[in-house]
Amino acid sequence: MGRSPCCEKAHTNKGAWTKEEDDRLIAYIKAHGEGCWRSLPKAAGLLRCGKSCRLRWINYLRPDLKRGNFTQHEDDLIIKLHSLLGNRWSLIAGRLPGRTDNEIKNYWNTHIKRKLLSRGIDPTTHRPITDVSSSAKPVATTISFASNSALEDQEDRKKPIINNFSPPKDEGFLDLNLDLRISPPPYPTAVTMKNEGRNSLCFFCSLGFENSKNCSCGNGKIIASSDSNGNGYDFLGLKSCVLDCRSLEIK
DNA sequence: AATCAAGGCAACCGCATTTAG
DNA sequence: ACTAAATGCGGTTGCCTTGAT
């Protein structure tokens, strides 16, 4: 029946961390490295749950964290990534060096949401709030990477989406549907974009990945849309025929 | 100066996923 | 292959700070 607690709650501190606890945790991780969070509190002499130690380290004590206000560029990047990934905070954080998922999540909920609402944009769908027609029915243009909530019909939720991908026109990436693709969508190369008379930023550059080897607009590096073996292109760091968003993480 | 409300953020909780035995 | 433990993640809560009255 359920799982056993990760630690003995009766003997663990809760609430805000003290300076002394922080120092102990930092000293222990400096000496032994990260990992084995369950046994860490005891070994470090902390009366804390392992999960609590991990959270404290990842969100506040890590030396590579960037504290302070978000820049405009970071704002824009978060909005773009959220439109693509939804509430996948860890994936979004992976594209913002020095920022944590918790920090970005809080920032989204307290600042960006309000900013978008004030601009008349729905922070969930990234569409204009007045655009009733788009929300009236579940069209295949809804961004719903994380869930099938855009599919109103329960039966539809059980079906994998296998229809072909329509490549984004201009910068309409908000119209991507990334739900449960069986095969990778055909990504427009620099050549096809040129043939179409499109000189706008490619998908990756638009997301702020100018240095991505996947850049196909000339703003970054031009690459072929498939590898030498003719396999699928590297979609956001995913070289596969199965779309697994976890590969977006920066290891 | 005191009180209240809203905003902001750190931390916790519970579920999902991954890993190890 | 199966199961339990460990870890990771996203949602939520609660406390502290700040600004308005």
From TrEMBL:
It is found in: Nucleus. This is Uncharacterized protein. Residues 9-61, 62-116 form the HTH myb-type domain. Residues 9-61, 62-112 form the Myb-like domain. It comes from Citrullus colocynthis (colocynth). Keywords: DNA-binding, Nucleus, Repeat. The keyword Repeat applies. The keyword Nucleus applies. Its main location: nucleus. InterPro entries: Homeodomain-like_sf, Myb_dom, Myb_TF_plants, SANT/Myb.
